[in-house]
Every structure is written in structure tokens, then in C-alpha cells.
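hiii so my PI (J.) wants the whole complex modelled not just the main chain, which honestly fair. so below is everything: two entries, each one labled with what it is. i double checked the lines twice but i was tired so who knows lol
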Amino acid sequence: MDWLPDLNTVWFLLVGALLAGYAILDGFDLGVGALHLLTRDEQNRRIMLNSIGPVWDGNEVWLVTAGGALFAAFPNVYATVFSGFYMAFMLLLFALIFRAVAIEFRSKQPMKWWRSFWDVSFSLASILASLLIGIAFGNIAGGIAIGPDGEFSGGFASLLHPYSLLMGVLVLALFMMHGAIYVVMKTEGPLHDRVRGWIKHTMIFFIICYGVTTMATLIYVPHMSDAVKRNPLLFVIPVLNLLAIANIPREIERGRDFRAFLSSCAAIVTLMALFGVDMYPNLVYSFPAPERSLTIYNSASSPKTLAIMLVIAVIGMPLVAAYTVSIYWIFRGKVRLEASSY
Amino acid sequence: MSLVLLSRIQFALTIAFHYIFPPLSIGLGLLMVFMEGAYLKTRRPVYHQMARFWTKIFGLTFSIGVASGIVMEFQFGTNWAAYSRYVGDVFGSALAAEGIFAFFLESGFLAVLLFGWNRVGPKMHFFATCMVALGSMFSAIWIVVANSWMQTPAGFRIVGEGAAARAEITDFWALVFNPSSLDRLSHVLSGCWQAGGWLVLSVSAFYLLQRKHEEFAKASIRIALVFVTAASLFQLFTGHQSAVTISRYQPAKLAAFEGHYPESAPASMHLAGWVDEREEKVRSFGEWPNLLSFLVHGDFSKPVKGLRAFPPDERPPVQWVFQAYHAMIWIGIALIGLSLTGMFFWWRGKLFETRWLLRLFVIAVLGPQFANQLGWMAAEIGRQPWIVYGILRTEQGVSRSVGSGEVAASIVMFSVVYFLLFVLFIFLLDQKIRKGPEEELAAAAPRRASYRDS
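here's the output for the full assembly
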């Protein structure tokens, strides 16, 4: 059975799948948040908000569960990353809490100042959360200072270098594009036509960021392309990624909004896959001492725990998939504002 | 202040705030199952009105519970990195199971609960309510399992030495059913049921006093009063069970509950008291000699291990534990008394006219909230100085790469955000209560309006 991946690799894939699920799902609702202030009138803002109304909460669970899975499968990574990126994570938590509160409380009072305040909070918190997620990815790929004890030995400022900031902007751009496509899929009439126009702008923004990040990666973070250099078969992934992105305007042009959204999901999955392939078997790069990198072997739980967790995942994940699909099915179609809406 | 103390303060602050909400959700969730079930069975519009109203309140408590809960999932890593490395293999599994089995179930079906009234039929809606209630209970199960493992660790072994030492699972089911899991879970759940039940009683009693929504209020009280009476009695039973388990596995904690110092002697219980930690004795305001011995061993003369059997650096802060424990007990007894009094007046047919009792019901909503917080304080402070009882000390668990200044800054941040959240929560809760149930729902049961018809 040599062809089977070992348990550590399976868990690398599972944590990756949870993160990809998070990026696809919370990605669009963070993107909707980032775009929120572009609509001006109350009606359209409510439609934007209610397009994610029934699902944003469940989407965030993917992040929480990815955190739990990381804790159980790779406790050293969980410990090093979250304590190392302390202030960054506190800011992320702050943004996520504030965003949740803004969504819940906006509709509870009719005053204009009240709604404007929560609109701005919702949008800024979504933008901040997207940037921070990107910055975190930029750091684990670009490399952070890890001491001989496996602890992060840099400071908050050392996390904010040009490459990580670039990744932050890339993730923001990706989520904005993804969010715009989602809104197009969920709306009709004048708002639908307006947001269609945004897709072009968000796509251009994303493609520029993508191009710059790719160049920066090749020049400054060369280890992030080693795997593809070693194994040319893997070059299929970036090609698929580009095809998925290129397919978006084509589907939008033909008015097939759902397919455009699927293409955008595929773009996110292939981007995550590319990231995963180049990271493997590392989970956090150490720089300047690469031998201290945290890998799926030196930071994993015991094989017994990984096996138990795999049983839990095999039971749990199909259930999760079933709930997710059924919830999206129940709330399919265009947004309609009702008494119970936000 | 030291990094350890700051980290403990932050954890205490964030978990205490978070724990206002899940008990309300767990208690209300189960009550909503009863209410919607009653509606499906009888088709009486008042039950539909109840389900609608309490679902709205549930939505509010749940959303703040989620927002403050995200913090908890990551705080082990941010502030307790050494602990996370040491126990991730064991403790992380329970947390991950909670995510996979509980959170997805809850948050997914909650959408149907809150936004699905016109999208799915009544049976599907009822199913969703059941799933949300179940999800909230699964969440309690896994988190209490994880915490109980910290109290009475089992099913693991320690591998490695020094800084590389860590706990590894040897027997998953021994970990899940560690010696205190079931007792503590049942005690926690009954506390949650009381929190939700007393909220329903409080709001309904308020309506009766105001002579508003009377049919709604009476029907809510009938369901909730039976529920809290059962829960409060179960609380007493599970509390006793927990104490017996603690006497076997965490004797220092039990000794701190009653300020029992002698190394080995029959132990008393105190109605109230003040612990003199220097003199190592309790200034008692009412002592029942040897009662603790009887309660844990069934024999008044059996000795109970006291605090002097432990070196001073392995004793919890006795005063805190003693006071929190006693306050919890008294509130619990008061709630049992109040619910039984309510049942008595109901039986005499005077419950809805007895205004002094209804007034007590209105304020009793605070009872389970305080008792839940105090109970957890007794449990967690009573575990000190251990983060994992007898295995890892709290100061060994803290994150080494985080500075005191950073933790102080995040404490300030959480204090500000949580204060704001709390004020908003009270404000919105008050507003929903003032607005009351939708009266038009009482007039006619809704026809199923499917999404596609509209």
C-alpha cells in the first residue's frame, strides 16, 4: 500500500481542504463586506447584506474548525503561529467580532447614523480581516524567524514586510472579485447590472495583484516554486488556475452567473492547491534558518491521534458537506427582503 | 503584573463573557424544541407565536456567543502556546471534534431557524430546531470533555523529556469518558437549562405584571416552569455527584470548597464563612459538623483529606474557591425553592395572580447566570496551580514568545469590545422584550408559503 499517503500528508490535505473551504465560503462574504460601501442607498445595502445573511455565520465555522484541526493535528504549528502572530491575530479576532456585531446590529435600529456606523464597521472589518489573512499566508510562505525552541523569535513589525503586505492585498482582491460574482448571482434588476460592472474592475485589480505577487514570489521567495520546478506535471495547477480565472468574464458575458461563481471557486481551489504543493511538507517556513521550519512531521501529533482524528473527519466531513449543500439549496435564488431579514 | 497572571486574567475575562451566552442558547434551544413540538402537535397559534418570539431571542444570544466564541478557539494558541504543544495531541482532538460535530450543525440549521420560516414547511423547520438544539448540546459535550480532561486526565501517556515532553493519547474513549466527564457534563447542562428556562420565566412574568401578551406569557410559563423545576432538582443531584468525583480525584479542590485544612479528619460544611488562609482555618457563620464526610463517603466519621496534606505551592487560592462555591450553592438552593414555590402556586391555581412571586421570577433570571459563573470559578480556580491537574502547572503553559505589554493591550481591547457588546446585547434584548411577540401570529396560523410561490 505504498501508494497511499501517510497520515501526516492526509492531515496536510485535510487542513488545506478546510482552509480552501473557508476561503471559498467566507471569501465571498468578506468580499461582499469589502464592496459594501460602494452601494449608497439603504435598499441595495440591505440586499448586499442579506445575500450573505443566512450563511456568513456557518462560513466562519470553517475557520474555527480549521483552527481546531490544526490544534489537534499539528499542535506545534498552532502554538507557534498563533502566539508568534499575537497582535496580528488579536486584530483579526477584533475584526471578525466587530464584523459579526455589525451584521447583527445594523438592522436593529432605523436611524441613519446607526446604520451608517455599522455599514462602515462591517466594510472596514471585512477589509481588515481579508488583509490579515493574506499577511498570515505571506509570512508562513515567505518565512518567519523561528528560534531553536520552535518559538517565533521576531516581533509584530517583522511580520509586515512588502511580500506579506502584497499577499494581503492579493487576498483582498481575490475576495472582492469572488464577492462581486456572488452578489451578481444573488441579485436582479438594476443592482445586478451595476455589480456586473464591478466584476471587471475587481478582476483587473486581482489580475494585477496576481501578476505582481507571482513575480515577487519567483524573485524573492524562490523556494515557493521549487516543487513545480522539480515536478513539471504540477505545472498543470497554475495552468488550470489561469483557465478558471479566464473563464469568469466569459461566463459573465453570457449571463451564466452561477458558472462564473463556480469558476471563481475553482480559481480559489487551484490557488490554494498551488500554495499547498509549494509548501509541502512544510507548514511554516523558517527564515533565515530553514532547518527550523515546521513541517508536517516535526510538528504533528502522534500517529494514533492522527488516525483517531481521521475517523472523526471521515464521519464528520460528509455530514458537514450535506448541511452546507442543503442550506445553500434552501436559500438558493435571488435575495428577497422579508420580515426576518437583516 | 506577570505574564502568567495577565494571561489568566485575559482567559478569565473572555471565557466569563462568552459563557453568558451559550447557556442561554442551550437552554432556549431545548425549550424551542418543546414549543415548536407543541405547535406541530396541537396547531395552537400561541405555540407558533412562542416559537417565533423565542427564536428571535435565541438568534441574538447565539450571534454574540459565536462572535465571542471564535476568540476561545484561538486563545489556547495565542496565550497558552506551551500548553497547546504539551496537550495538543489530546485536548486538540476534543476541540476539533466540537468544530466538526457541533458548530457546523448549529450554524447551518440556525439559518433555517431564523430565515427559513417562509422557505421550508413547519416540519422541516421543527427538524432544524431539533438540530440546532442538538448541535448546542454536542458543543457542550465536547468542550466539557476537553475541560474535564484537564481536571481528571485519563487515556494518555507522557512522552519525551523536559521541553519536548508532551501528552499523547493512548485510549480515546478513556479520554472522552474520563472520571469527571459525565458528572460535570450533566451539571453544566442542567445549569444551561436553568439559564434558558429562567429567561423565559422572567420575560413571561414581566408580561403578566404588565398585563400584556397574557395568553403567550401563561403558555410560556407553563412549559418553562416544569422545565426549570426538573432542571434545578437535577442540578442538585449532579452537583452532589460532581462533589463525590472531586473528593476522589481532586481532593485539594474539595478541601478548598469547605476550607478544610486538617490533613485527615472528618470534614464539616459551612453555611457561610471567611477563610483565614494564614491561620489555616475558617471563621464559620454556621457550621454543620462532619456533613461533608457524610455527603462524600456516606459516613459522618470518615476522614476527608485536607489542605495541609498538600504542600503550600500545590493548594488552590482557598478564599476564592470557598466563596465562589458557597455563593453557587446558595443561589442553586434559592432557585430550587423558587421553582417549587411556583409549582405549588400553580397547583393551587394562583400562580398567574401572585404578583410578589412573579416579581421574584423577573429578577431570578440573574440567578443561573451568577451561579454558572461562580460554579466555573470554583472549578477552575480550584484546579490551580495546575492547568492539567497534577501534570502541568499553569505557569508552565503560557506563551513564551508573547510579551506582557501585548497581553495587557489585548486585555484592554477585549474589555472595550466586550463592554460595548454587552451594552448592545442588553439594549437589543430589552427592545425585543418590549416589542413582544407578534400578536398577529396568534390570530391565525400561517399557511405554508413556499419560496417559489412568492
